[in-house]
Structures are given as C-alpha cells and as structure tokens.
Automatic annotation (TrEMBL):
Name the record gives this protein: Glycoside hydrolase family 79 protein
InterPro entries: GH, GH79_Enzymes, GlcAase_C
Sequence ranges assigned to domain Beta-glucuronidase C-terminal in this UniProt record: 409-522
GO terms of molecular function: hydrolase activity
Signal peptide (residue range): 1-20
Length: 527
C-alpha cells in the first residue's frame, strides 16, 4: 500500500472509533435552534429572460420536458416552484410591438457567448408564460434603460403581462437585476448615483407600473398582489450600493416589497483557485457564503420583511464545466439550500439558462450542448424530499453541527416531531482519477446517531443520492430513480441496478448507524 493511501485508511479508522464513543444526539422534538416554519415554494427557480422561450416553449410547442422536471418537484413538495424570469438580460431588453419573434439579440462575443447584450422582445414572448399549468411567475422589468425606449417598454409590456399572468399565474413583481452593479459594469449609471438615487428611481418606476396595472388589471391591486421582490442586489464583487442605505433612502416607503431579494454565488467561474473539493464540496465555504446574508438580514429585521435569495447558484459567470455540472455540484446544492433553510433564508431561486454550465437541465438541443437532465437537478430533487410536503404541515429544519468541512447533517421536524435527517459526505472521490492522493477504493464514512430510548423510534428508511463519484455528470440517481430525458422525458424511472428500499433498525439503546460512501448523500426517514 502506498504511504498516502495508508494514512487515508488510518484517518478513516480513527474517525470511526471517535464516532462510536460520541454518537450524534437527535432531539425527538423541535429544538430551539430550528428555523421558523418553512414557506411554501422554498425550492424555486430563476430563469434567464433570454432563455425563457427555450425553457417554456410557446403555445404551439410547449416544452413538456421542463414542465415534467418542475412538476416532479411540485409533486414531492405539495406545491410548485415559483418561477422568476430575470437575470442580466432583463435589463438589456427593449420591447418592439411589431416584432414577430419572441426575442432577438445581438451578441458581444468578446464579453460572453452565453447571452446577448442587446435584446428586442416581441408580443409573442408572453406566450411562454401560458405553457405551464399551475405555475406562478415573476416577470422582470427593465430598470436600466432610462431613455424613451425604456419608458415605452414599461408602458407597452405591463398590459401584456397582466393578460399573460391573469388568475393565479402572477406571483410577484420585479424591476431591475443587480442594480448595485450598474456603475461597475458598462457605466450604466453615473458615479454620483447612490443608494438614495436608486431608491428614488425604483419608486418612480414602480409607481408608473402601478398606474399601468390600475388600468390593465386593477384586480391585482384590489387583491393585494402588487408586491415586489427587491432590491435584487448582487452583493458580490463590484457591488457599489449598500442594501441598508437603500432602505434608509426610502426604498420601502410604498409598503410594496414582499421579500427582501438578494443574490448569491459561492465564487466565480474564472476566479483563480476555485476547485470542486475546496469551493463547492466544502461546508465551511458554504457557511461563510450564506452567513453574510444572515448578517444583512439581521440588520434589516426591523422592516419585518422576509429575506430570500431571488437568484443563486454555484459559480457566477454561468458556472464552469467540470465543476458546476458535476455530481459534486449537486451535493453542494443540497448543502447550500438546506443551510439556507435552517438559518432563516426564506426561499431560494436557483438560476437557470440555456447552455449554462450550472443549469439543472438543458431545455433544448444546441450545437455543443445536449438536451437533457444535468447533475444539479438531482440535488433539487433531494432537497425537495428532505423538506417534504410543506403545503400541509408545519415544517422546520435545524443544522446539526458536525464541526467538519466535509460532513453535514440536518434534522427536519414536522408538526413538532423529528421526521427526517439529511446526511452528506462531501469528501471528494473522483472515479475518473487515479492519483496517489485518492484512496484505491471508494471509502465509506460511518455515522452513528442516538435518539432517546423512550422516543418510540424503531426503524429508519433510507433514500440515497448516488453517482460513481463527485466528477460524474451522468449515471446519477436519487432513491434508485433516474430523471434522464432519454428515459421518459424527465419523469422518474426506476433503475433495476440500484439498491433501494433500505431500512435500519434502531437499537434498544436508541443507537443506529449508517455508512455513506465519499461524495454521496442520504435522506433518513424516521418511522
């Protein structure tokens, strides 16, 4: 045996002995550090405006693959995800009432090939909002354009949105994507444009929209549904506006902000030193990223407005191949979403786009990207299973601190009682690698838990999130099911070669244990 592999084996043995002496205690009732009751649609999505016709299709050719994938999550959770349509391209889009195409764009290839920087929108764009039954949407309006074209875009598209999102299709409103970067990128605002100037502009345009709504769909105002996600700050590199100062500047004076909306990415796709093991599959990295929002939400708690992440994913810049599209990124997504839920982030919208490396699925066939389900989607499915049917129960979640970079656990309580445990082993195991730093065979970690002897818990049922390794981009399953497009267009298909239906007996002393291979996860259901 090579020395490095011997040391790895010894480390695993010592860790296992330590756990045997110190099992992880589980509270049978909701502990004091648990979250508030989770909101419906905690697991939600954001879709780049430029990509939305690809994801949803139109009335003559709806994208049923996307619909099936989203409905899978809705069926597990008891309600469908809320879909936000926005991203950078919402502020690059001008309306053309005479355009036949939904969208047309001009690319600036020396900056990015992922989306155009100049986009025209035709009336047919709004057909895409009508292809998915029983889903509600947030349409992102253009804040950046201050000229006559920008004004007419608002005036002409609000009535179309009212028509497309009538009934229960309207969730909330939004105008502007990451305005805290307007001065940093492409000089879209002058140097003197500060938080108060932003707040005044935002209020002016939302008041204009309200008058347009009053004329086109007054029932929205009458039913109390003229409410916004705001301010949609990036809160990352290049940020030039402070959220606290924006609210001090009067942003909330019209009392029409339903959720404080901020964005989050762990790091960037081209940032030096970003790796799967140390950036994504690292619980401490995730904690540091989310905790900055906890500090902000604490400072803003006096407003009494819930704090959410209206756009989030792994690496800004649309992700990186080999990192954001891997099974390791799916595991990161589980840890990230559950840590957000456990610490008071009230909803997370995972951002999507055509050809985006971090996307949960590719909605259409492209020259270099195959239509299909991608690794991060399995993380979305796992999170939905961990949280369960929020629509019918009081569901709360707590972080079980294992004091580890690569092992995490969460406990879910339903109506006050322990219902599920989420468990992640984030140590990197690349099945395509044969380096001396990696064990010859895939290691397991043993987790030993203890419930009180009088808890009545007798058996644990297990669902596993599995792939061949952290670098896998295919062959991924949750509880033995694949959601691949080529099997049944995204609907769950049971795989015969995957073990499922696993159960664990709880000892009379309240102890039970489970082995997790490196780079895998499990959901434990308490019976």
């Amino acid at each position: 045996m090579k020395p490095t592999r011997f040391l790895n084996s010894l480390t695993l043995l010592l860790a296992g002995n330590a756990r045997a002496l110190n099992p992880i205690p589980l509270s049978p009732q909701t502990p004091h550090n648990a979250s508030d009751a989770l909101l419906r649609s905690f697991v939600s999505f954001s879709i780049e405006l430029w990509s939305f016709p690809d994801f949803a299709g139109n009335l003559s050719a709806p994208n049923t693959f996307s619909y099936d994938l989203l409905r899978n999550i809705g069926e597990i959770r008891g309600d469908n995800p809320i879909i936000r349509i926005g991203g950078n391209t919402m502020d690059f889009t001008i309306f053309d009432p005479n355009q036949r195409e939904a969208l047309k764009g001009n690319y600036t290839l020396n900056i990015t090939r992922d989306y155009p920087f100049s986009i025209s929108m035709g009336p047919s764009f709004f057909e895409s909002y009508q292809t998915w039954d029983n889903f509600s949407f947030i349409h992102g309006f253009n804040l950046e354009s201050n000229d006559t074209k920008g004004y007419h875009t608002l005036v002409e598209t609000v009535p179309l949105m009212c028509k497309a999102l009538k009934g229960n299709r309207l969730a909330y409103w939004q105008i502007g994507n990451e305005p805290d970067l307007f001065k940093t990128f492409f000089d879209r605002r002058p140097a003197w444009w500060d938080e108060e100037q932003f707040a005044r502009e935002w209020l002016s345009k939302t008041r204009l929209i309200k008058e347009l709504v009053r004329n086109s769909c007054p029932e929205v105002i009458e039913n109390g549904k003229y409410m916004f996600y705001a301010p949609a700050f990036a809160a990352g590199p290049g940020n030039t506006l402070n959220i606290s100062k924006a609210f001090d500047g009067g942003l909330a004076e019209d009392d029409n902000i339903a959720f404080i909306d901020m964005h989050n990415y762990i790091s960037g796709s081209t940032v030096p030193g970003v790796t799967l093991a140390n950036t994504l599959m690292n619980h401490t990295s995730t904690v540091h990223s989310v905790n900055k929002h906890l500090n902000q939400s604490a400072h803003l708690s006096y407003l009494g407005i819930p704090y959410i992440l209206g756009e989030a994913n792994s690496l800004y810049g649309q992700g990186a191949s080999g990192l954001s599209n891997s099974f390791g990124a799916a595991l990161w997504g589980v840890d990230f979403n559950l840590y957000c839920a456990a610490t008071g982030i009230r909803r997370v919208h995972m951002h999507q786009g055509t050809n985006y490396r971090y996307a949960s699925w590719q909605p259409v066939q492209r020259a270099n990207v195959t239509k299909g389900t991608k690794a991060p989607y399995y993380g979305n499915i796992a999170v939905a299973n961990v949280l369960g049917d929020i629509s019918r129960n009081n569901t709360r979640i707590s972080n079980i601190d294992l004091a580890s970079d690569h092992e995490t656990a969460y406990a879910v309580y339903v109506d006050g009682k322990l219902a599920r445990i989420a468990l992640l082993q984030l140590s990197q195991y690349n099945y395509t690698s044969n380096t001396t730093n990696q064990p010859a065979t895939r290691p397991n970690s043993t987790f030993i838990f203890q419930v009180p002897q009088d808890s009545g818990v007798k058996k644990i049922f297990v669902q596993r999130l599995m792939a061949n390794g952290s670098d896998a981009i295919s062959g991924i399953t949750f509880d033995g099911y694949s959601y691949n497009y080529e099997l049944d267009e995204g609907k769950p298909v049971l795989q015969n070669n995957i073990t499922r239906g696993e159960s664990i007996l709880v000892g009379e002393d309240g102890l039970f244990d489970i082995d997790l291979p490196w780079s895998s996860g499990a959901v434990l259901h308490i019976n």
